[in-house]
Amino acid sequence: MDIFNGNRRLQYHIMYAIEWALYSRHNSNKTLTPFLFEWEKENLSVKEINSSTDRESFAYNLIQKPHNKSDQFVFCYEGFLTDELGKTHDAIVAKGYDVTQEKGVFLAQAFEPIEKNGIFSVSDRLFYVNNPELPFKPKTNIKPNYSAAKLGGKSQINSNVDFEAIFSHDNPALISNGVKNYIESAVENDYSEIISGRIKISLVENFSDKNFFQFSVLRAIQEAKNSKAVRNWEKNNNKRLYVNCEYENDIWLKEFDESSKDIEKYNYVTNSFDQEVTTQNKKKYINKNLKGNKHNNKNIEKLIISLNKNWKTIYYTGFILIAISIILLFYNLIKILEIV
Questions:
Q1: Minimal CA–CA distance to 100: which of 20, 15, 6, 24?
Q2: 235-240: long-range contacts, CB 8 A cutoff, minimum separation 24
Q3: Largest alpha-carbon pair distance within the chain?
Q4: Which of 7, 86, 198, 293 is deepest in the core (most CB within 10 A)?
Q5: DSSP conformation letters of 265-315
């Protein structure tokens, strides 16, 4: 079942809104102010909803105004959800819609607010609630656009790093999700037993709010390192996974020395993402119109883990040498027997 009804663009926009909500909440002990993300083509605008009435209805009324040309929108607020075991969670609630489709998507991301235990944390569970009806009749004067630029980048190997990936997209949440999937896939491929556990992540997009982008990416890396896939790989191979991450010329995370083959953990994080989200910071981000993806060229559409062909060459060469050795051994034994 495709809960997004084939609308990849809406999927990416909902991910973006949830990530922004988590960033806005991560170092604040105040409930998230509901907000509305609107996209007109690929230009984003954000409105905080401070109405004293029904805020959700107020937000949807903004979309229905005659001059409004937005084709997709996401309404986000903070609430609670109850899982299948009856446990209640704090949650970021996101309801996303395309104005040309009859149904939207209702998701909830569970999290632990900082005021509970002094530590902000995000659950690895993203709950699908349902597909709510569009709160008004679908618009017929807007051309539907359900496709979205895919994640751009490349994967390569250098001598002291198992995997090195470069990511690029105009949606920071999509990059973060790609980083998480990339790391987890690295320890699940056919060669996972022979890798040392070093991964380098490079980011090349220039976002107006670097703090938001950094929060999103470092959160994704930590989530990947705490995943079942990575924990099992570390346990089964008696190794640790190390990640270096850099953005342009800034080091965001450094856990190993790339110039050495010796494992040396740094635990060195710069530009701490626990910076307070100030009003000025928000306005700078909100007033920035995000343009379409600039990387719609021949960048890789799917970042699939690709080990250095040298690994295969080493294996194949090794097998061939062993086979030749066995043949020579039997040949010499036969010669000895003939002599005897």
A1: 6
A2: 237/192, 237/193, 237/197, 239/196, 239/197, 240/197, 240/265
A3: 104
A4: 7
A5: ---B--S-TT----HHHHHHHHTPPP---S--SSS-SS------HHHHHHH
* DSSP codes joined into one string, 62-117: HHHSTT---SEEEEEEEEEEE-TTS-EEEEEEEEEEETTSSB-EEEEEEEE-HHHH
Contact 99, 70 (CB under 8 A): yes
Residues 122-134: tens digit of each pLDDT: 988 889 999 999 9
CB 48 within 8 A of CB 152: no
pLDDT in tens, 102-153: 999 999 999 999 998 888 999 888 899 999 999 999 988 888 889 887 776 6
Residues 136, 59 contacting (CB under 8 angstroms): no
Angle at 22 between CA 108 and CA 62, to 5 degrees: 70
Q: What share of the chain is helix, strand, coil (3-state, %, to 5)?
A: 35, 25, 40
Compute the distance between CA of residue 50 and CA of residue 58 in angstroms, rounded to an integer.
Answer: 9
Tokens 């790339």 map to which residue? Answer: 258
Q: Provide the H-helix boundaries in 126-227.
A: 172-186, 210-225
Count of positions (residues) in the chain: 340
> Which pair of structure tokens corresponds to residue 181?
């999937």
Tell me the Ramachandran region of residue 127: left when phi exceeds 0, alpha when psi lies from -120 to 50, beta otherwise. beta
pLDDT tens for residues 214-258?
Answer: 999 999 999 999 999 999 999 998 999 999 999 988 899 999 887
Q: Are 156 and 192 in contact (CB under 8 A)?
A: no
Q: Which two tokens stand for residue 81?
A: 């959800």
Domain boundaries, the chain: 8-130, 152-276+287-307, 309-340
Structure tokens at 283: 């306005």
pTM recorded for the entire structure: 0.72
